[in-house]
Specification:
Layout (H helix, E strand, L loop, with lengths): L1 H14 L35 E18 L1 E3 L1 H8 L10 E18 L4 E18 L10 E7 L4 E11 L3 E11 L7 E2 L9 E2 L12 E2 L2 E7 L3 E12 L7 E2 L3 E11 L4 E12 L3 E2 L19 E14 L2 E33 L1
Antiparallel strand pairs: 1-2, 1-3, 1-18, 3-4, 4-5, 4-6, 6-7, 7-10, 7-11, 8-9, 10-12, 11-12, 12-14, 13-16, 14-15, 15-17, 17-18
The structure holds copper (II) ion.
Length: 348
């Protein structure tokens, strides 16, 4: 089996361009592991003229702050901000966040070797806070902010570089368009006294056009399959608020096991590297809260996904629970506990 996998990896360099139409929805590639785990995008193609519609739901849970690899209590987070560089959390500290996302994903096989896709995002963001020493509404009290609406829209083309009956090499020429609102205000932090723009992680989009190139390799054995993917998110220039969100690189590897032809289990490891922000929105002072600080956005995360896939009467169900096992954060930020991801899709 190792030999087959190696030949799949070596074959790319030898046969780029010499693609053959291997029907992705028939034979070995038509079983329950035909799509990767729920948290993976851009890992499969559709044959010419085929449409796929998917609804995907994600929720990420974040509780407690962290400096580097050390978790802090809410009061420690406020104390930390008194001497951090820059000084922060004088107005409030975040204590908890849920990042919920509804996604509508459409794919279309323009040819057997090129699949076009677009994904509409509807984030729903909720953050709980504890007020800090300089807050006119009184330190030690709490408040919640919420924001929802359209996020940035992703689109692109998946291009088959090389395939055999057992493997696929897929290039993702992706991009995102800044359809998400990045400037909304709230007076909740000051108990209604002053209206302030929501800090960076509470904004619905990046405000920039982003390049999102990626590459996926997948190998199908008789009753299991293996996938690897590198996926990037690279903002171009600065948005109209004069900042750029951090570039991101995700490296995933996964294995899927067929229990039957219609049911599979998946196991996935994900490394995420994200940069700090460049520039600064002039209306978000660092001293107020850590989520306004551009140099407190980057870091490294290691996530592990446990999932299942099932096909039933033309429907494809995909679900995953993804605990964050390791994270090393720049400055002070909310730490990620886990995500859940679930989707339903249908091709026709
Ligand atoms: Cu699809």
């Amino acid at each position: 089996m190792a030999k087959f996998q190696l030949s799949c990896l070596l074959s790319l360099g030898l046969f780029v361009g010499a693609t053959t139409a291997w029907g992705d929805d028939s034979g070995r590639k038509g079983l329950a592991d035909k799509h990767g785990p729920a948290g993976i995008m851009g890992d499969h193609l559709h044959e010419q003229g085929e449409w796929m519609v998917e609804y995907r739901y994600m929720n990420m849970y974040m509780d407690d702050n962290r400096v580097g690899e050390t978790t802090l209590s809410d009061s420690q987070a406020i104390a930390y901000g008194a001497t951090s560089n820059p000084i922060t959390n004088r107005g409030a500290t975040p204590t908890q966040m849920t990042m919920e996302m509804h996604m509508v994903h459409v794919m279309y096989g323009a040819s057997d070797d090129v699949t076009l896709y677009t994904m509409l995002m509807l984030p729903s963001l909720t953050m709980d806070h504890l007020r800090g020493p300089a807050n006119p509404a009184g330190p030690g009290t709490d408040f919640t902010t919420h924001n929802s609406g359209f996020g940035d829209t992703t689109l692109g083309a998946l291009i088959r570089l090389y395939s055999t009956e057992r493997c696929d090499w897929i290039l993702n020429l992706g991009a995102s368009v800044p359809t998400g609102d990045i400037y909304r205000t709230s007076s909740a932090p000051t108990g209604g006294l002053v209206s302030q723009p929501l800090p960076y992680p509470m904004r619905l989009g990046s405000g920039t056009f982003n390049a999102r190139p990626g590459m996926t390799v997948k190998y199908f054995a008789d009753w299991w399959s293996w996938g690897g993917q590198i996926q990037t998110d690279l903002p171009i220039g600065k948005n109209y608020r004069d900042y750029q969100v951090g570039s991101e690189v995700r490296l995933n590897t996964w294995t899927q096991y067929l229990l039957t032809d219609q049911v599979a289990l998946s196991w996935r490891g994900e490394h995420v590297w994200r940069d700090n922000y460049d520039g600064a929105d002039p209306d978000t002072p660092d001293a107020l809260i850590s989520t306004n600080v551009e140099s407190f956005r980057g870091g490294y995360w290691y996530n592990m996904g446990f999932g299942a896939q099932a096909m039933w009467r033309g429907n494809y169900f995909n679900a995953e629970i993804v605990p964050t096992l390791g994270q090393d954060l720049n400055g002070i930020q909310l730490e990620t506990d886990y995500s859940i991801i679930a989707s339903w899709s249908r091709a026709f």
